[in-house]
From TrEMBL:
One of its GO terms (molecular function) is 15-oxoprostaglandin 13-reductase [NAD(P)+] activity. This is 15-oxoprostaglandin 13-reductase. GO terms for biological process: prostaglandin metabolic process. It comes from the Eukaryota. Residues 18-327 form the Enoyl reductase (ER) domain. Pfam families: ADH_N_2, ADH_zinc_N. Its EC number is 1.3.1.48.
Amino acid sequence: MVKVRHWSRPQPFQAEVTEKDLKLVEEDISEDLQPGEVLLESVYLTVDPYMRVHGEPMGEHKTMFGEACLKVIRTRNGEFPLGTLALAFSGWRTHYLSKDGKDLRPIPFDLGSLSPSVTLGVLGMPGLTAYFGFRLLEPKAGEVCVVNGAAGAVGSIVGQLAKHKGLTVIGFAGSDEKCQWLTKELKFDYAFNYKKISLENALKTAAPKGVDVFFDNVGGEFFHQMITKHMAHGGRISICGSISNYNDTEKQKFPQINMDVLMNELTIRGFNILTYAKEFQTAWNEMVPLVKTGELKFKETVFDGFDKMPNAFVGLFKGENTGKAIVKASNYP
Ligand SMILES: NC(=O)c1ccc[n+]([C@@H]2O[C@H](COP(=O)([O-])OP(=O)(O)OC[C@H]3O[C@@H](n4cnc5c(N)ncnc54)[C@H](OP(=O)(O)O)[C@@H]3O)[C@@H](O)[C@H]2O)c1
């Protein structure tokens, strides 16, 4: 028998998410596999903001959902030999039993010397979100781009893609250290600590003629102020997320933005990364070489040990991560 640990969420999250909302459960899995079965151990797991707003699954023994990068530790499936790495939506668990391998995905590009954790970060769902969400903005060289949540997994990539394209990039993040990383290492033109400076004062100098493209990870008051005060005529807005609202107990009243959208002829687009699944290869073709040469930089905040899943998750809502929040559950190779 293999001892399997997984995190469940017995009750719905109440307002601010806490570590106590999650419960560690132990189960046994038989090591005697049937033909076609693959037993894997999680190597890296991801925690993402969407896990806060996703309704299911809930219950004492239901595993929190999420993607992981796993290694094969027992197999009766020729497509997944011992030691192979694979990706799966296997949830917050130390081990996963695949019945036929159909729910496993091989690593979709050559890792080279990169850590397998990149499959959950810069070259995984968050990096792809940055790529397709930024493309939606139809950005042009010379334009001004604002991104919030700028030192996070998605935002840090958006800003760099915008720099590559020749835009002036203005990032907003929640600490001076994060802002320094954005300007010094990622070469953002400006980075502001939104806890210390108002949007008004920041953009007075950084974008005196208004903002052409706005990639919104935060929503709420930031979104409202951008639409009503800071967009240039013909500006485009990509609504990626709204993390400032995920802990709200009541649905926000929609802000009065109609006349601002009309007068400035703004375009506001929401998107879900899963819609672009058929095009992921296009993004990897572009991004993998950039990451390997270091032209596209990334950072990971790695939490060591499967027990740290709740800490890593709750930390997302307190700004504890810079770049991608990752949990390292076991060693590879
Ligand atoms: N549309 C899609 O398909 C899609 C896909 C992936 C992600 N998303 C969304 O994209 C956004 C970013 O995701 P991510 O994975 O890159 O997360 P992340 O930025 O790596 O982590 C969350 C960050 O959000 C900031 N934050 C937390 N609470 C905040 C608040 N109340 N106000 C302002 N900032 C706050 C914190 O940074 P600070 O220190 O800067 O506050 C924190 O580090 C999220 O809204 C997520 O839901 C959408």
